[in-house]
Design goal:
Number of helices of chain A: 14
Distance between the termini of chain B: 41 Å
Helix content of chain A: over 70%
Number of strands of chain B: 20
Structural class of chain A: mainly alpha
Strand content of chain A: under 5%
CATH topology of one domain in chain A: MetI-like fold
Oligomer: heterodimer
Number of helices of chain B: 10
CATH architecture of one domain in chain A: Orthogonal Bundle
Radius of gyration of chain B: 25 Å
Distance between the termini of chain A: 27 Å
Chain lengths: 278, 365
Amino acid sequence: MAAAASRRVLPGFGLTLGYTVGYLSLIVLIPLSAALIKTFSLSWEHFWQIVTAPRVVASYKLSFGTSLLAAAINSVFGLMLAWSLVRYSFPGKRIIDALVDLPFALPTAVAGIALTAIYAGNGWIGQFTEPLGLKIAFTPIGILIALVFIGLPFVVRTVQPVLQDLEAEYEEAAASLGANRWQTFTRVVFPLLLPALLTGFALAFARAVGEYGSVIFIAGNLPMISEITPLIIITKLEQYDYVGATAVATVMLFVSFALLLVINGLQAWTSRRMGRAR
Amino acid sequence: MSIAVKNIEKSFGSFRALDNVSLEFPTGKLVALLGPSGCGKTTLLRIIAGLEFADGGQVMLDGENASDRNVRERQVGFVFQHYALFRHMTVFENVAFGLRVRKRRDRRPEADIRKRVNELLELVQLAWLRDHVPAQLSGGQRQRIALARALAVDPRVLLLDEPFGALDAKVRKELRRWLRKLHEDLHISSIFVTHDQEEAMEVADEIVVMNQGRVEQIGKPADVYDRPATPFVYGFLGAANVFEGQVEGSDLRVGEDLLPLGGKEAPDGATFKAFSRPHEIEIEPDSRDSLGVKARINRILNVGGMARVELSGTQGRNGSTATHLYEVELPREQLGTMSLEEGQIVRLHAPRLALFPSAPPGTVQ
């Protein structure tokens, strides 16, 4: 290994690996294992009792459910947005391109307050939807909207460069072989975009699961209905129930990790299937 | 199928890609569109395919005006320079693509599709790669698969855009012969675009030489090579030596030297550009009163089947200070008997000259 490494043009395998491991430990692994270790001070029964409390279970369902749904919505509309930004030129394109990044930069609390103001019963949009029986703010729908908002840039920014590199030749080849527009998109373009789309989905999902700031304003935080898991953790912390907080955090950690692993596996599979080394 | 284009015009912004191009392509023949990059050959091919639309003029397929028809409806097979194979599909699925996307009522049963795809893979001699993905194939194999894929839809015409452009020299040569043979078996009307005159000569039944959006000459490879219609064609089809000057009797006055025209008739006093291939030039020793263009030997390359001598004119061309370079090819045995040396002054004779009228020296062309 050392001999092979020394023959590389750019040396430094040992250094980079050491740095990678050290850095990841410091930034990611040590804080996370602290959470785990804290959890181990609980007996199994107690741990189980905390993490399966009905209010906590309802929050898992809400957090993971809305996050997956938000990531899915972002995948569809993010793809459309990336498509129009890459394929067409229209006035104000650069401004729209810059707007996409805004959810990254905006403090999430600001986003949450702004969304709440708009979708509340007396807000710009809420005043029209509420008479129709559609309550948005202070319901899971509000949470969904907040999560869609903060997750949008991920899909656009992962799909955009891939779409840019996708030569029109593929579409032309498909058309010359007699494929109609729908077939060209579903059989040729979409499969080529899928790995990037899955990456964007995973990122948007991960961000949504961990989101706190923007959601708590618009959610209303009703136990069993619109209370997200991060809020449960904060609530426990505020009640000095550190062990309980870390127990819930641990569950969240594992579920997130498992879901991300599945998505990444899927992504790796699709990109391997089309032979990345072109 | 017969293909014809009439008065095709196409501009990209202020750039005129095609300028009133009219052509008829013979049925069942392999025709090369030959020209330097930017001459409009690829644009013309894409207009015939329906991937691009002309600003004016008509594309006739089988005598029918197909100008407004979409690429989907034209039933042409198109082969791209960079193959454009679908990289998420196996070789088999790539070839089957055109058969699978047909409308349900036109679609053949699965067993038929399999049979047809296997036949095509046999035809391009790559049946053993059926379950591979394009990334696992070499460039030459990819291009053969791309061809099989284009043939799957039973195209009425096959269009190839620089099909060997991305391949290395050896594979290129192999594929050229293979394409020629395939064409002889299938006899499907084909047009291929290339900037490589050797490739066009070797593969095509007929060559269309293009330059700056216009057709310069059409003809069989030998005709185009032996009887170039314009100075551009002469220069593009092979190495050329150019002598420019005014006719004086039976000679051409090149600077201070006189070059015999070798029996060619030309009006006295007219300005001509005379072209000659390197192997058509003779080198003779310099003596005071002899005819021929004076030149100094820069370099003698005695390698390969023919020896090559590089020379430079002893005087500026048309009064300019830039020296004119010449190239002569002769059999190696002949070189041995001539005892030429680098630095020596010699006279060049050209028994076979191709004359093209040119503007008198000094005017801007």
